[in-house]
Write a structure and sequence with these properties.
- This protein is α+β, with helices and mostly antiparallel strands.
- The protein has 7 helices and 12 strands.
- The strands form 2 sheets. A 6-stranded antiparallel beta sheet has the order 1-12-2-3-4-11, with helices on both faces. Strands 5-6-10-7-9-8 form a 6-stranded mixed beta sheet.
- Mean pLDDT is about 85; it is low at about 1-5 and about 230-245.
């Protein structure tokens, strides 16, 4: 994976203007809903909007890498709660982000912004099999976040999200760094903090680790680690059954 030169590493506060390619970051103001005690996966999330129109808005979380793999080959990222990691495999929605620009790659991809597109897992597999790409060229996000008409606008006006415009170079750099160094138990808080600082929102970050942050890290521990929580529960139940025999 490489980040091409020539484009500046930039991000700025976009106010309440949302469009395809916008980045939204989970706010932390408790008075306006900070996703602390429910929907912890949205707390301090950084979401790229793949599409936005009058009927539906769809995005994927960029700062929730996991230590799990699909088919033992593709590292999974937690993309969102809709058709996500807890859904049966046939029901999962899998988005493979990439920075490939060849005509062949774009023929089976959908552009999000200049420099970032996405395809399905079947599309990613096809590109690898044809020698057009390697597995390392893709970020495989399972699940997505979705909003009905007007829903995201209302959440932004309520103060639940900060809206940003960002260059593909900056977003790809963050994905690359997480691929190499991310600790799933850190839950992506460092990436969120870095982007908030770059867009001039340092005053909204805070200096202390809050209870809501601890809840997010506990969510990450049970959902993003390699150990399958459901399997652990099943194992505990099997042990209890054996002890009763």
């Amino acid at each position: 994976r490489g980040v091409e030169g020539g484009e500046e590493d930039w991000v700025y506060d976009a106010g309440d203007v949302i469009e395809q390619g916008s980045v939204i970051l989970g706010a932390t103001d408790k008075d306006f809903g900070s996703f602390g005690l429910s929907q912890q996966y949205f707390r301090k999330a950084m979401i790229l909007l793949l599409s936005h129109d009058s009927e539906f808005t769809r995005g994927v979380i960029l700062n929730r890498p996991t230590s799990r793999y699909i088919d033992g080959q593709w590292r999974m990222w937690y993309g969102g709660d809709v058709q996500g990691m807890t859904s049966p495999r046939p029901m999962q929605e899998i988005v493979c982000l990439h920075a490939l620009t060849s005509p062949d790659a774009m023929s089976i991809s959908i552009r999000v912004i200049d420099g970032i597109s996405w395809t399905t897992l079947d599309g990613a597999n096809a590109m690898v099999q044809r020698g057009m790409a390697t597995k390392e060229d893709f970020w495989v996000l399972v699940g997505y976040a979705g909003w009905a008409p007007g829903q995201l606008d209302a959440e932004i006006k309520r103060g639940s999200w900060h809206v940003a415009a960002a260059s593909s170079k900056l977003l790809l750099q963050q994905l690359l760094e997480q691929s190499k160094t991310a600790d799933t138990l850190e839950a992506g808080i460092g990436v969120w903090t870095k982007i908030m600082q770059k867009m001039g929102k340092g005053s909204a970050i805070g200096d202390e680790v809050t209870f809501e942050d601890m809840m997010l890290r506990e969510w990450a521990r049970t959902h993003l680690n390699e150990e399958d929580v459901n399997s652990a529960v099943v194992g505990a139940l099997e042990g209890a059954v054996k002890r009763r025999r």
